[in-house]
């Protein structure tokens, strides 16, 4: 790890910044910059009953676990739901074309191909599309601490305004609600009998997390949680 840090600081960080330059002068970049700069989040969502609120459950596939070392997002998957209502899920999935080469082990883990990534959107395009898909909803990830940090670090790297939409960490809710269970996503999927899809695929993981999250919403009222804001605060230990 120390060698990777040194390599990134001395060489790769500067090379990454150099490769980004052509994108920073495009119209799409300027449009996204303005959108983020002027974006206002709907605070009324926080007051909604948590069992009725709109949520976007999302998952990222990345080239590593440390965005501060230049690891990148290579896929975003998301599911839009309306509380506990069993409505048809709206789905979102985009491959994201990386700036740096992707190790073969990452491709093996995710099932992606180099062709998939070459045909993917730039991070600018993918984030803009995800922002549109998820607008007027609460973001949910498992764990959100990882996914939200990754998104915000990517925005910073691309010299874009930081986006801070309201979000709930589903894993933290699970730890509060089911303390006797193992809290890894795979364990919770097994415990709740959720249909298992191929893992490490952003859309599949979002689908399974969405099913798990709806189970959470069915049970959460027993803990005295009624609004979205109460759920967010409880997850964060407030």
UniProtKB/TrEMBL annotation:
Keywords: Exonuclease, Hydrolase, Nuclease. Residues 54-222 form the Exonuclease domain. GO terms for molecular function: exonuclease activity. It comes from the Bacteria. InterPro entries: DnaQ (IPR006054), Ribonucl_H (IPR013520), RNaseH-like_sf (IPR012337), RNaseH_sf (IPR036397). Gene3D superfamilies: Ribonuclease H-like superfamily/Ribonuclease H. It holds the Pfam family RNase_T. This is 3'-5' exonuclease.
């Amino acid at each position: 790890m120390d060698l990777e840090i040194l390599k990134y600081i001395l060489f790769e960080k500067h090379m990454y910044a150099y490769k980004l330059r052509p994108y920073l002068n495009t119209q799409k970049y300027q449009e996204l910059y303005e959108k983020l700069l002027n974006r206002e989040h709907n605070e009324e969502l926080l007051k909604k009953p948590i069992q009725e609120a709109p949520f976007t459950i999302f998952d990222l596939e990345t080239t590593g676990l440390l965005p501060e070392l230049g690891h990148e997002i290579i896929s975003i998957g998301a599911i839009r739901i309306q509380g506990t209502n069993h409505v048809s899920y709206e789905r979102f999935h985009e491959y994201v074309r990386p700036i740096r080469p992707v190790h073969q082990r990452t491709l093996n883990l995710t099932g992606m191909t180099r062709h998939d990534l070459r045909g993917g959107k730039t991070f600018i395009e993918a984030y803009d599309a995800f922002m549109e898909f998820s607008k007027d909803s609460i973001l949910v990830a498992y764990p959100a601490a990882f996914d939200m940090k990754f998104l915000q670090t990517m925005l910073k790297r691309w010299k874009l305004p930081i986006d801070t939409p309201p979000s709930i960490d589903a894993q933290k809710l699970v730890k509060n609600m089911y303390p006797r269970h193992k809290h890894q996503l795979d364990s919770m999927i097994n415990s709740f009998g959720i249909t298992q899809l191929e893992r490490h695929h952003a859309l599949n993981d979002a689908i399974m997390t969405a099913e798990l999250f709806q189970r959470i919403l069915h049970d959460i009222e027993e803990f005295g949680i009624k609004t979205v804001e109460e759920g967010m605060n409880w997850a964060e230990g407030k």
